């Protein structure tokens, strides 16, 4: 059956101006943040040195932008509210050398068609300003107005004429944060301009003109990020990339702090993003993202910025040049940083304990009186117990622990195979390696450590395995965090720990609050920018808990599970660290008992294995 049209055929006709504007608004006015961006870009193109922005109800209630730019006379103001009217281009040849932010001449009429807009402006040197009011695209009033300099645009009741669009907006708090992000991205490209933002009558930030890039970033990014930024500047063949890149150690779980600019315009470009990621190749895990602010400068004719209504995408004439310059610029900064960085390895026992340091006034409540002190190795434990019993301390015999004390706090339950009897005079030490419970391929024997990184196992079926000690310990720690959240245990602190918060950290804490409390943190907010910690998860020392919270609020994770993976990686023993056999056995036994043991929390394999048949093929013993 032939398809029938849903409506009778209509003749082709020119759309009414109001409908044209609303269709254009659908392209450039996505949400309050896009309105703010368009208005502030107009202010910057008007040579403003100070731009003040005020929003209410996340921008849906009102957005007001005031600047000290060159202003407009009444005739220009009327044209500015007309589609395809602009002062930024006059000839088709100028499309190849655009230096301004906006040039389509659609923003103001599009915004006015879906809101109540008031435009007030005064040209430089004029005695009196002028005002035009527009309601849903229709002019409702005009006349003289008082204004000292520049232009003021107030947008109220956004989407009043298209209420269906309101359903697609998020909460006022979320929309306000997007407005803040949009203004801040513009501010990074114009360090010579002062910008202020107020939301709901409260000042969010005030950026003074003449700040450095690092100083501006410190307003919105937490100290844990800005303290580790690395400058870079590299040029080749009229293509220059400069800016700041984050230390790989400060990587995070989201890509929201990779900011890209082309000739001063904020863009979203996959090619540049791929170049940034490639520069960090081998320095980050698969789910980690760096921080980077990249300014790319090219001759005007080398780019096409007229490929997207919101002008957030660009095309490059020479993509390979752009990719190589961005990648090389950041890679050079990282290489210089690594060359100058001092060694930072910590002992394996420290890592197995979870980073416990010297006690301080904030240490957890003391252990029970009958608690036995920790031991660094299995042999130390057995010798101490034997000495106590020999000296008649009256202590009852105790079963061997599930793992050496060094690993006990983080290791999952599991039996460590008992070592053989003590060494005989003249006999080699240590004793023959004990067998471990089934690890796949039958019980296994620990043979030793390779390159201070891989634990070698021989299975009873002849299979040979290498276990990555760092990845295995990551999986053990991650499982411990997971179990701790389901229990919700908390360890009270004798003295609460106070952590001052950067505004960006305070906002992030609000998102993670419930997850952190479920994990076992006892948290209070005596002030908006102060966090008080009254209890911590039993798995963490005070020092490690402090690091954990700092990493959380600095944005190094998307959610609590990402944070578990991050902290597991930071706390796990490292590649290149020698393990005593007792410690290796304890780690293997703990790893054997956890679910999902074949992969670390980031998805990397923990163990690789070769069967006898695999080895025969590798040595070409059979086809």
Structure overview:
The protein has 623 residues and is α+β, with helices and mostly antiparallel strands. The protein folds into three domains: 191 residues, 2-Layer Sandwich (Heat Shock Protein 90), CATH 3.30.565; 120 residues, Ribosomal Protein S5, domain 2; 252 residues, MutL, C-terminal domain, dimerisation subdomain (formyl-coa transferase, domain 3, 2-Layer Sandwich), CATH 3.30.1540.20. About 15% of the residues have low confidence.
Structural class: alpha+beta
Q: β content, as a range?
A: 15-25%
Give average pLDDT, whole number: 78
Major beta sheet, specifics? 8 strands, mixed
The end-to-end distance, rounded to whole angstroms, is 62 Å
- CATH architectural designation of the largest domain: 2-Layer Sandwich
Q: Output the strand order for the largest sheet.
A: 5-4-3-6-2-1-7-8
In short:
With 623 residues, the chain is an alpha+beta fold. It folds into 3 domains: 17-207, 2-Layer Sandwich (Heat Shock Protein 90), CATH 3.30.565.10; 221-340, Ribosomal Protein S5, domain 2; 345-363 and 374-418 and 436-623, formyl-coa transferase, domain 3 (2-Layer Sandwich), CATH 3.30.1540.20.
Attribute tags:
623 residues, alpha+beta, Heat Shock Protein 90, Ribosomal Protein S5, domain 2, formyl-coa transferase, domain 3, 8-stranded mixed beta sheet, 5-stranded mixed beta sheet
Q: Could you give the topology of this structure?
A:
Blueprint: H1 17-28, H2 32-45, E1 50-56, E2 62-67, H3 74-80, H4 107-112, E3 116-122, E4 129-135, E5 138-145, E6 150-156, H5 172-189, E7 194-199, E8 202-207, H6 213-220, H7 223-226, E9 229-236, E10 239-246, E11 258-262, E12 265-267, H8 270-279, E13 292-297, E14 303-304, E15 315-316, H9 319-340, H10 348-353, H11 378-390, H12 405-408, E16 435-436, E17 444-450, E18 454-459, E19 464-468, H13 469-487, E20 491-500, H14 503-519, E21 522-527, E22 530-536, H15 542-553, H16 560-571, H17 581-592, E23 607-610, H18 612-618
Parallel strand pairs: 1-7, 11-13
Antiparallel strand pairs: 1-2, 2-6, 3-4, 3-6, 4-5, 7-8, 9-10, 10-13, 11-12, 14-15, 16-17, 17-18, 18-19, 19-23, 20-22, 21-22
Helix pairs in contact: 2-5, 8-9, 13-16, 13-17, 15-16
